[in-house]
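Sequence only, no structure available. Ideas?
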Amino acid sequence: MASMLSRPCRGVYDPCMSHVASRPVEAQKINRFSWLMALYAENHQRLQRLFAPAVLAEGRYVSSVGDGLDLHLEVMAQHAYTVEYRLSYALLDPVTGEPDPSAFLRLYRDARLVEATHCYIGRRWQDAIGLHPPPAEVLDHRLRMNTFLGKWLQYLAERGHGVGTLVRREPAVRGDAGASSAHRGLADS
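Reply:
I predicted one. Tokens follow.
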């Protein structure tokens, strides 16, 4: 290190300084990942305040605030440390027939995080980022999905949705493969 400091500057590019120039890029990746984890924690708090999902049994629920846009919340599966949800409106995409917008969520009970694992907003994740995207692109896509989720949860709270407006409609259907199998396939990849 002392030998590097005692040498005179060799112009614009100094190979000894290349390790210093690469450090901000590494810090930037850490910051983006930290931001994603903070979004997960913030989304957990928002979802908890809205619907207290930890106490909901598996099944389908509807929240209606009289604005004509009923919110559908499905508790798809409960496991020891995670719970899987689908959040959507009764609006259907005219091409696919799928609820649009919709988000598949995974709540991590022990870590107190909620992750949007899959969002459908007019197109599938494969169309948005391809089948084998580079890791940086996957991180960017997850940031976008979870930012969308945070804004949506905030909007729902502002519209008046919450525990008081949530009504159980029917139990979950175990053989409901449709979007659930697509969601599980994404989570495994």
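Confidence is low (pLDDT under 50) at residues 175-189.
Hope that gets you unstuck.
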